[in-house]
Amino acid sequence: MRIAIFTETFLPKIDGIVTVVCLLLDHLSKRGVEYMVVAPGLDNGEDHYNGNPVVRVPGVPFPIYPELKVGPPTPNTYRAVKAYNPDLMHFIHPLIIGAGGILMAKRMRKPTLASFHLDVAQMAIHHGLPFTAPALWQYTKTNFNVCDYALAPSKLVQEQMIERDFKNVGLWKRGVNIEKFNPNFCDQAMRNKLSDGNPDDVILLYVGRLSKEKQIANLRPVVESIPNVRLAIVGDGPDRDELHEYFAGTRTTFMGYMTGDELSTAYASADIFTFTSALESFGLVMVEAMASGLPVVTTLVGGAKDIIQEGYNGYAYDVGDVDTLTNRVATIASNPNLRKTMSQNARAFAETQTWDAMMDEVIECYQDLIAGTPPKI
Question: 237-262: b or e for each residue (b if 16 or more CB lie within 10 Å)?
């Protein structure tokens, strides 16, 4: 089986979408499935991944997500894909590279799969372009409905897609590497760093992009109103300088961008994970935090309904409801026994959410589409 995977974002850039794509590619390699990747031509971008070809497409910064460089596939792209002759073409949230790839697939008469990873319309609203949202939803729906099958990352997004008349929408659930994200990574030196030398305080952790739609500023009232609580922010993004200024003078530490064991240690060395995002297709960091033994307090976005069990492994609240956010954090922070119990529950839940089973379902989806039968996923 040979798969062509088109993605609007890929290494060396790191984000939630790239993480899922790389996990998929690693699993395909593990299962002996051949693939090629069609991705943006970023600086220092490799032309192979796990020994499989990566075809780079030249592009320019995407206006509402400037870290992305996107552009339409070229005739050289088409020639490379045609020569590879895939059995199926998988589009990771087709926008520009993916839209061109869909045209290629139709010309080559290949089965097609599109998976949802980014609410572009909602992102446009948060970047002051609300008038573009209806057109973006229509454009997204058109690209997805041209494909033979679609996959949503959470039940919430699946419901939204079906309500907007997306056709043939299955569910590709998200998992976690429970070895990589594990309470055993807890480290006193890291607690010192996260807490700015106050490791006995309760450490709140945020991991993710520093941008408007993440609403990280909502954590300042939490830090200011709850004694003995400190916030550690891991990540980078366009709002970094503005957030540094906004949190100045509070019990907040900016840790910068982290990956690998350093990130695993940061998760495991904190006490509570806080996620304030106003939009998310899933929110992979939530289940990574749970695997690391952290109770999660999150907005009701993305996969929150799929993973949060109220009072058991975390709490969920409505977007923008800072009072409830503060109350839920205070409930956990003020009760060490509750925090310990919720930590154990979070880890237990994460252990049921392994990637292998979920990625095997995607491979089965490929096989069904190639065979011309309805996918079971």
Answer: bebbeebeeebeeebbbebeebeeee
E strand intervals along 199-262: 202-207, 229-234, 252-256
Task: Compute the mean pLDDT over every residue in the chain, rounded to the nearest whole number.
Answer: 94
CA distance 65 to 13: 12
Contact 289, 273 (CB under 8 A): yes
Calculated CA dihedral for residues 110, 113, 117, 123, nearest 10 degrees? 70
Q: Which residue has the tokens 């929110």?
A: 283
pLDDT tens for residues 25-76? 999 999 999 999 999 987 677 899 999 999 999 888 876 666 677 789 999 9
If one compares 376 and 338, the residue with the highest pLDDT of the two is 338
Task: With a cut of 80, say whether residue 177 has pLDDT above it.
Answer: yes
Could you give the domains of the chain?
Answer: 2-175+354-371 (3.40.50.2000), 183-350 (3.40.50.2000)
Q: How far apart are CA 174 and CA 169, in angstroms?
A: 16
Helix (H, G, I), strand (E, B) or coil at 44: coil
CB 24 within 8 A of CB 6: no
pTM reported for the whole predicted model: 0.80
